[in-house]
């Protein structure tokens, strides 16, 4: 009899606690700043697919937090292979069958941002916020997207809501956006912008020709790198780029060309796993740490320099590695392309650790 009364009281107590939690959650949600959500948009047209399985192990390894998810595992494989049509269809089917499977929306947003479909990415993350207005990852990344889309009111709303959920996350997002704004304002051109003597010249790769020879864009980078190598004979030369769009790694193609021009082989260090600019930053920083280099001259096309410098700068900072960076570029285009400018914010978010669900776990 006594045990029954005890069990009855425990059930009543648990019910009261659950009611209090529900009431508390209700009033907490009532205090949340208003966030105006966007309407759902149709799945974007997929980009042309990549090389498939050969790309699977390139760096960065996309979507590591979903590798063991039985529902998203196949989508992760498509993502890493740049099999965009299969990826988009797979994820669209998942959210259609189960609209409450929130991680599928997150993965959609990642892929769409990688492919510069910013409104589609925003739409999918807003489907998460429809269900949970306090989701720190969705609030953080949609703040970045509002900045990219130049929606000042939307950015302000989401940043205020993020501040309510996690002040630390809000500070991180705000700081990355401000730092990126400033880095994009810096001058970039064919000559270094400072009098720094580099310890290393880091060349961000570009797709070569199908026959393994440098393309026009890659050649412009190499000619700039060669000039700098002659000007700074003590500097190591870091070449970064994997076999992204051809069977030849960008790094090996660059090395072969530099050797043909008489550059000593013992000066050259290769990163042959990078799939993109963020991957370049990962590989370059890894080599810099290994050889204890802190002064780096970044080389790309002039058009690409703002994105390359911003990504490497923010990644080094996120990793706590002291690095002084200057840059010089090849080609004739000015560093003022709007598409490049906007895409820099995506790379900055990835490099600084405010992009993926896993990134935001440190704020919770």
From TrEMBL:
Transmembrane segments: 9-29
Biological process (GO), any one: peptidoglycan metabolic process
Gene3D superfamilies, A to Z: HUPs, Tetratricopeptide repeat domain
Residues annotated as domain DUF218: 199-312
Pfam families (UniProt xref): DUF218
Species this chain originates from: Faecalimonas umbilicata
SUPFAM superfamilies noted in UniProt: TPR-like
InterPro entries referenced in this protein's UniProt entry, alphabetically: Cell_Envelope_Assoc, DUF218, Rossmann-like_a/b/a_fold, TPR-like_helical_dom_sf
Protein name, per record: DUF218 domain-containing protein
Coiled coil: none
Highest taxon in the source lineage: Bacteria
The entry's keywords: Membrane, Transmembrane, Transmembrane helix
CC terms in the record's Gene Ontology section: plasma membrane
CDD domains per record: YdcF-like
């Amino acid at each position: 009899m006594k045990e029954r009364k005890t069990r009855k009281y425990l059930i009543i107590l648990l019910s009261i606690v659950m009611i209090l939690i529900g009431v508390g959650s209700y009033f907490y949600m009532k205090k949340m700043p208003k966030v105006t959500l966007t309407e759902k948009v149709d799945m974007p047209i997929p980009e042309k697919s990549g090389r498939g399985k050969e790309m699977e192990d390139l760096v960065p390894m996309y979507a590591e937090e979903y590798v063991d998810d039985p529902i998203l595992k196949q989508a992760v494989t498509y993502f890493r292979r740049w099999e965009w049509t299969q990826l988009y269809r797979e994820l669209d089917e998942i959210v259609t069958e189960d609209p409450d499977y929130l991680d599928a929306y997150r993965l959609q947003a990642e892929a769409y941002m990688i492919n510069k479909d910013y409104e589609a990415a925003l739409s999918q993350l807003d489907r998460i916020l429809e269900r949970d207005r306090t989701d720190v990852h969705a609030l953080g990344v949609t703040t970045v997207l509002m900045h990219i889309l130049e929606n000042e009111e939307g950015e302000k709303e989401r940043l205020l809501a993020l501040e309510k959920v996690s002040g630390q996350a809000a500070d991180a997002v705000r700081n990355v956006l401000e730092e990126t704004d400033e880095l994009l304002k810096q001058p970039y051109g064919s000559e270094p912008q400072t009098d720094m003597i580099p310890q290393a010249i880091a060349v961000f790769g570009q797709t070569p020709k199908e026959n393994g020879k440098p393309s026009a864009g890659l050649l412009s980078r190499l000619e700039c790198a060669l000039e700098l190598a002659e000007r700074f004979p003590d500097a190591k030369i870091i070449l970064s780029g994997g076999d992204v769009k051809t069977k030849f790694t960008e790094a090996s193609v660059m090395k072969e060309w530099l050797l043909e021009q008489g550059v000593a082989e013992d000066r050259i260090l290769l990163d042959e796993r990078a799939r993109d600019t963020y991957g370049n930053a990962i590989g370059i920083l890894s080599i810099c740490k290994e050889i204890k280099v802190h002064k780096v001259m970044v080389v790309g096309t002039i058009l690409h320099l703002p994105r390359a410098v911003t990504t490497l700068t923010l990644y080094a900072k996120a990793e706590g590695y002291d690095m002084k960076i200057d840059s010089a570029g090849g080609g004739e285009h000015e560093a003022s392309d709007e598409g490049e400018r906007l895409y820099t914010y995506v790379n900055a978010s990835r490099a600084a650790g405010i992009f993926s669900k896993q990134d935001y776990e440190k704020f919770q």
